[in-house]
Every structure is written in C-alpha cells, then in structure tokens.
Design brief:
- The chain is of the alpha+beta class.
- The chain folds into 3 domains: 165 residues, Uridine Diphospho-n-acetylenolpyruvylglucosamine Reductase, domain 3, CATH 3.30.465.10; 72 residues, Alpha-Beta Plaits; 92 residues, no CATH class.
- The chain contains 10 helices and 17 strands.
- The strands form 4 sheets. Strands 13-10-12-11-15-16-14-17 form an 8-stranded antiparallel β-sheet.
- It is globular.
- It starts with 5 loop residues before the first helix and ends in a 15-residue tail after the last helix.
- About 4% of the residues have low confidence.
Length: 369
C-alpha cells in the first residue's frame, strides 16, 4: 500500500520543535537494539511507504522511508536487479529508512561498497519541521555538500527520512562458495591475498573453523576462479550467506555481549578473550566476550579501528551495562565508540545545523548528542 504521510510528520515535528519535545523515530523496530533509546514521544513512520519511482534502465529507485525492505528487494528482483550492499533486515518488516539510518551493509561490503555509497539523494524533515531535498537521482551530483550521504548511519539524529533514492545493480549470473579448513591467522592471510587479485570475490568470512569465499559474476569468471582457489564447494551458498547477513548463524545465538570491531583488514588477531567471527576480509570482526568495554575499545583503537557494542547480551552483563539501559549511560558502555574531539565537534555542529532544538532521537548515537 502506497501512502504519503509527509505533511502529517511535518506538523508533528514542527509542534515538537516549538515545545522542545523529544521525538523517537520508530519504523518497524527491527534495529531498535542498536543505540540507546531514550524516553521520548514516538514518531511512527512505517506507514509512510511505497516506491515513488523506479527506472530499471537507469538503475535508480526512489522509495519512501517506511517501505518494507523485502518489498523493495522483490521489486528489484522482478527486474533482475538488487541492492549491491546486501543490507541485513534483522526482522520481517525492516524498512528502507531504518536500513539507511543505521548504515548497515552485508557480506558484499568490501567488494561492492557500503549503503552510504549507493545513496543518491534523500528527502527529509529537519528539526525545525522543514522539508528538505538533497542529492538527486544520478551518481554525479556535485552541487554543494553531499548531505544525503550524511544520513547513512546518523541514526535519525539529523532528520526524519521521507524518501531515499538509491543506485541499484543487475543480479550476478552465477554464484558459488568455497570452503577451506584453516586457522584464524591463515584465514586472514588468505582473505587478503585473494582480495588483492582480479577475482570475482563477493564475500569472505571465517567462523572459527573454516574460511568461506564467495564468488559471484559471469559463469565463466566464477568457474575459472573456482579452479584457481580450490576448496570444497558449499551445497547452499545462498542460505549460508543469508545466515551470516541476518546473524542467524549459531555463532550469533550466544547470550554474551556482541561486539563489532571495524579494523584495517590486514590487522593480526586481536588479543581479547572470547569467540571471534571474521567478516569483510578481516575488516569487520565480531566478538562474543564479557571483557571490559574500555579494554575492547582500547584494543580496537590501538589497531587503528573502533568497536561497537552491537548487542548488549542477555546474560553475564556487568552492572554498568545493565544500568546504561535505564537513565544515565556510562560513556564506556555506549553503543558506538566516541570519535576524537575534533570529529565529535563536527558531529555537534551538524546536529546544531539540522536539529538545533535537539529533539530528533536524542542520545541515540551518543549520549550527549
């Protein structure tokens, strides 16, 4: 069902801005675990849905933010196309707006690019209640600042997304996944070795026992790369990567806190006790651990990256983590690792420019933003 609720949302935001009432932007809630949810008046946006325009020839689609991701992907699949960044859903009714606001990308990220890379333009409501348009429907858009891509990963703190225009690509003709039994250190070396060559790699991961390499592209290219790389062929490549993308793999079912470390791909194994799942050629590393939050963040920082407390876990959490769910967040246990002071100052300036009253998803990204 197509439905445009832009005017309704605009009135709600304008009223909230005048009274200083905080708003909590709510879609389907499939990613509500990510970031701190403060007490605020709900602004339900999932009813604002529908594909606004789609041109398969130009490889561009524009849809309202509340459009279910599965419906959008089915529309693309019917035309033999796809979202190249393979966004995780984490729920049956995940929306396009929530996907872009969280900036999440799937297994193809190192080879095809991130969600941010495919955002061409957005329409949004800022904290003043103004409806603004940024970007367009072409890749080469150089008029002013690229504010549309700022919305990817902003967690709704800069505006209420109304419409998003995305670049899409044709689906690959062939796909296969190869398995190698190996150690963590060898898996990291192998992933980086093969990713530097002209091969149709589209995903890699290591689950603690085996290395998985996905090949996607023209049939002849996939077959040629398969002969070069070798290894056991996976029986169901699609289902395997779906389980990785949606965190349905047994690794992610544990009750311990789940950390996401973003690191330079060639970084050696990190010395933190816990179980590891390596993704994105080593650039994304999932850690199940009860280690002190500051230790995890410091190790990530020392390696040239950062750590996100992706899920807080349901067992063995210390008092600081439990307390952070309620009133005041301990900065050490915030979801997202705080950037250096200079970068944080840029965050504050952007927040001031887009949402001067600070009413949109306050504290969702950082406790004091």
């Amino acid at each position: 069902m197509n439905q445009d609720l832009s005017q309704q949302f605009q009135q709600q935001v304008m009223a909230a801005s005048q009274t200083g009432t905080p708003l909590q932007i709510q879609g389907d809630g499939s990613k509500s675990f990510l970031g701190h949810i403060s007490e605020a008046t709900p602004l339900a946006v999932s009813g604002h849905r529908g594909v606004v325009s789609y041109d398969p020839v130009e490889l561009v689609i524009t849809a309202r933010a509340g459009t279910p991701l599965r419906e959008l992907e089915q529309t693309l699949a019917d035309a033999g196309q796809m979202l190249p960044f393979e966004p995780p859903h984490f729920g049956l009714n995940a929306t396009l707006g929530g996907t872009i606001a969280c900036g999440l990308s799937g297994p193809a990220r190192p080879f095809s690019g991130s969600a941010r890379d495919y955002v061409l333009g957005v329409k949004l409501i800022n904290g003043r209640g103004e409806i603004l348009n940024f970007g367009g429907q072409v890749m080469k858009n150089v008029a002013g600042y690229d504010c549309s891509r700022l919305m990817a990963g902003a967690m709704g703190t800069l505006g209420v997304l109304l419409e998003i225009s995305l670049k899409v690509l044709p689906k690959q003709a062939a796909e296969t996944t190869l398995i190698h039994n190996t150690s963590l250190a060898q898996a990291l070396d192998t992933m980086n070795q093969w990713s530097g060559k002209s091969l149709p790699l589209s995903a890699t991961c290591y689950d603690g026992d085996s290395l998985y390499l996905r090949l996607s592209g023209a049939k002849t290219a996939v077959e040629s790369a398969q002969q070069l790389i070798g290894g056991e062929r996976h029986d169901d490549s699609t289902a395997w990567w779906q389980s990785v993308k949606e965190q349905q793999h047994p690794f992610f079912q544990a009750e311990l806190p789940l950390w996401r470390l973003s690191l330079p791909a060639a970084t050696a194994p990190i010395d933190i006790p816990g179980a590891w799942f390596i993704d994105w050629c080593g650039a994304q590393r999932w850690l199940l651990s009860n280690a002190e939050p500051e230790r995890v963040r410091e190790k990530a920082r020392a390696a040239g990256g950062h750590a996100t407390l992706f899920r807080r876990g349901t067992a063995n959490n210390d008092a600081a983590i439990d307390a952070s769910i309620d009133a005041v967040i301990d900065l050490a246990t915030e979801t997202f690792q705080r950037p250096e002071s200079g970068v944080m100052q840029l965050h504050r300036r952007l927040k001031q420019a887009f949402d001067p009253a600070g009413i949109l998803n306050p504290g969702r990204l950082y406790a004091d933003l």
